[in-house]
Amino acid sequence: MRQRVSFSLTLPLTLLLLLCVYESRGGSVRNTEAIAPDISSTVNPQPFLPLLAPSPLTAFTNYSIPKLSGLCTLNFSAAGNMMSVTATDCWASFAPLLADVVCCPQFDATLATLIGQSSKYSRMLALNVTHAKHCLSDVEKILEGQGANENIQKICSIEPETLTGASCPVTEVDTFESTVDSSKLLGACRKVDLVNECCDQVCENAILDAARTIAAIGMPNSKGVNLLPEHSTRIDDCKNIVLRWLASNLDPSSANKVLRGLSNCKVNKVCPLVFPNMTTVVKECANGGNQTACCKAMDSYVSQLQQQSFITNLQALNCAASLGVKLQKANVSDNVYNLCHINLKDFSLQVGSQEYGCLLPSLPSDATYDITSGISFICDLNDNIAAPWPSSSSEHPSSCKKTTKLPTVPKATSAQSGLINEDLIFLSFFSSLLVLKVLL
Question: Which of 17, 26, 67, 77 is 20 to 30 A from 265 via CA?
């Protein structure tokens, strides 16, 4: 059984030992030529091994029995497996790094399912504020007892009010079902096509229609709700009620799949990175500046992005486009991505000093726990897609464009024996390097 890494080891010595072992097995991992971006969510990717990032840090296994408030009536056993998955997805030190893509979407889905499943007996799709405080505290204690980060509520920006009905006028199951075409809603969302839902929005549109319907209750003009923007507070609050109702009409596993699929569409539409000041890059790269100085500035800038979090393939595409647009607006007209060999993986958290980016799959994925290897998550270290330079200062990519194609998830393959030894040696130290980098 692999032991927990001791942080008391001298850092330089640890890195030196890792480097010696790695170099003795044949040097750096093979570099591949960057290929043009291919951005469709429908194409079958060419077979390659979806690499796991095994952690030598054994997961928290001494589960403690938390002292709960005794004032929360949610049925935690109804979502027992989801709670375990959430604890793993939000495991201790990895939670902030996986927050946007893995941890928080799973935490949100678990909370919605807990309230939805409990509504079968309470007939309520929301909690009052006092009840919500007790329940959120209890959920956090249970997850922490299974190894989750103790600050998960803060990391995911979840407040007790999130579990209430907020501004939505409908919180009772009976009122909801007498107002909404529930059979139509369930038909659209019972099985969500994880690949096509983000573009076709079959379930999402049904949820929006249901949310608008219940949001209209109590408004002086029934047509007024149609004037509300899609993401108004009232509509968003009612969407939460709709999601909880869906979770009550599906088994927890199916509910989790639907909720994660829907949240994944939102996740992949944005770039979660915070762009630091670009003054140096603009100074060196604007108006056809010196290439060496420009690329040095770009490398330094990108290295700051690489210290933030893990992102998906599609998020990396959005980040590349967003940064490109910002640079173009600052009079950087040359394609500095091509000039300086910037790839999509360069926008995600890097591993060690070898500059291996980790892009997560664009479809929902979870971290996993194994008693021998600890916490692992699917990570594409083979991805070497060239970052696309926007053709105009207002262009943003869309994975729904039929003319461009990008694999959504690594394709399973049995070609594991094809990996040469230095690849395997590198992978065995993946999380060691990651944790050491994060600690610096």
Answer: 77
User: Which H or E run contains 370?
Assistant: strand 368-370
- Reading the block at residue 118, the tokens are 């409990």
User: What would the pLDDT profile of 20-79 be if each residue is shown by its tens digit?
Assistant: 433 434 443 334 444 444 444 444 444 333 444 444 444 445 566 788 999 999 999 988
Return the amino acid letter for 289.
G
CA distances from residue 343 to 34, 58, 126, 155, 346 in whole angstroms, order as listed: 7, 32, 45, 28, 5
- Answer yes or no: is pLDDT of 263 > 70: yes
The first and second tokens of residue 263, run together, are 């949240």
Kindly report the backbone phi and psi dihedral angles of residue 297, in degrees, each rounded to the nearest multiple of 5, phi listed first: -65, -40
Separation CA 104–CA 113 (nearest Å): 14
Q: Encoding tokens for residue 313?
A: 């393939």
Beta bridge partners of 231: none
Nearest partner of 106 among 77, 91, 127, 85, judged by Cα: 85
Q: Which residues pair with 375 in a beta bridge?
A: 369
pTM of the model: 0.78
Distance CA(360)–CA(267), nearest Å, equals 12
Structure tokens, 168: 């939505």
pLDDT given for residue 397 in this prediction: 67
Predicted confidence (pLDDT) per residue in 96-141, tens digit? 999 999 999 999 999 999 999 999 999 999 999 999 999 999 999 9
67: Cβ contacts below 8 Å, ≥ 6 apart: 141
Q: Check the CA dihedral 96-29-388-41 and report its sign.
A: negative
User: Containing H/E element for 13?
Assistant: helix 11-24
The CA-to-CA distance between both ends of the chain, in Å, stands at 27
